[in-house]
Design brief:
Elements: H1 3-16, H2 18-53, E1 57-62, H3 65-70, H4 83-94, E2 99-105, H5 107-118, E3 135-140, H6 146-153, E4 159-164, H7 166-208, H8 210-218, H9 223-258, H10 263-266, H11 275-304
Antiparallel strand pairs: 1-3, 1-4, 2-3
Helix pairs in contact: 1-9, 2-7, 2-9, 2-11, 7-11, 9-11
Length: 307
């Protein structure tokens, strides 16, 4: 097969269908950018889960005298936590295999932390240290097993409540998961549009060159020899679209995360993924951008190049 002939046919096909080729490139670029973005979003959520779940604490709040006065039933109805109950709770917590560390926070410490966070609000002036609850802050070896602590200590004498921060985290990660699925849905729609455009472009190209392909068939050219220029046209358009998609992913990382909007410096509490994550996705985007149009063109040509 002469490479010069194939390249010339590719150039002819692209020039004849320039507008549709441009539409294919844009559709492929957008769909693959969404695909790569969805992969990066999924990795970002996984990274954030590992980062935040490692910092999640279970808080065991102890009864104080105010709880005892305002509660008619429950674990605080017998009065504020006693030193014996406090010691028993701490010993039991430290003896559990899944507990990594237990930190005691007094009411004075809790009041100090409250003032640091909410001292600027009007309600802060009406809060006194004796109204704050003592607590044990429990760091777990496996944060996802927080329900063991909740089940074991809720309702115990001297325990007002057991709260786990991962409940809030679960809601946030669930929202991010929904956003990721939404991006995947949009990506699938764009991918279908791109495939339809590729098939339509191949049809128009095959129809416009039906005379040439008919002559090639009559002189003994194989089906593969006839199909190669059309397949490479689609592959070329897909590759250009994939390159644009890679550029968009790189631009998003550079201008949104690292520079420009600089979310990495403005949102220091979030552990953003780095360039290594982006670079590992680019080869996959390029391969899909090359193979997807080629396969679509091959399937379309099985029917439209029969002479």
């Amino acid at each position: 097969m002469r490479a010069q002939f194939v390249m010339s046919e590719i150039g002819v096909g692209l020039r004849r269908n320039l507008t549709m080729t441009f539409a294919v490139i844009i559709s492929v670029a957008l769909s693959l950018a969404l695909f790569g973005g969805s992969l990066l979003m999924r990795e970002q959520v996984s990274t954030m889960k590992g980062y935040w779940y490692d910092k999640v604490n279970v808080s065991v709040y102890l009864c104080n005298k105010n709880d005892a006065e305002t509660t008619s039933g429950g674990s605080c109805s017998k009065g504020a936590v006693t030193p014996e109950q406090k010691q028993a709770l701490e010993t039991e917590l430290k003896g559990m295999d899944l507990v990594e560390k237990v930190t005691y926070e007094s009411s004075d410490d809790a009041f100090k932390h409250y003032q640091e966070q909410f001292g600027h609000t009007a309600l802060a002036g009406s809060i006194t240290p004796d109204q704050m609850q003592e607590s044990f802050r429990v760091k777990l070896k496996h944060p996802e097993k927080y329900k063991v602590i909740t089940t074991s200590f809720s309702g115990r004498d001297g325990v007002q409540s057991v709260e786990d921060q991962s409940t809030v985290m679960d809601n946030i990660f669930r929202l991010l998961g929904y956003l990721n699925w939404a991006a995947l849905g949009i990506m699938l729609i764009m991918l279908i549009v791109a495939l339809l455009l590729i098939v339509n472009t191949v049809r128009v190209s095959a129809f416009s060159r039906r005379r040439e392909t008919g002559i090639m068939r009559l002189v003994g050219a194989s089906s593969f020899y006839i199909q190669v220029p059309f397949i490479m046209e689609a592959a070329f358009a897909g590759l250009i679209g994939a390159i644009f998609a890679c550029g968009m992913l790189g631009a998003g990382q550079y201008f949104v995360i690292d520079h420009g909007a600089a979310l990495r410096t403005k949102m220091e509490l979030i552990n953003f993924i780095g360039w290594d994550s982006v670079l590992t996705k680019l080869p996959l985007v390029l391969v899909i951008g090359l193979l997807m149009p080629s396969l679509a063109a091959f399937v379309a040509l099985r029917k439209y190049l029969k002479v």
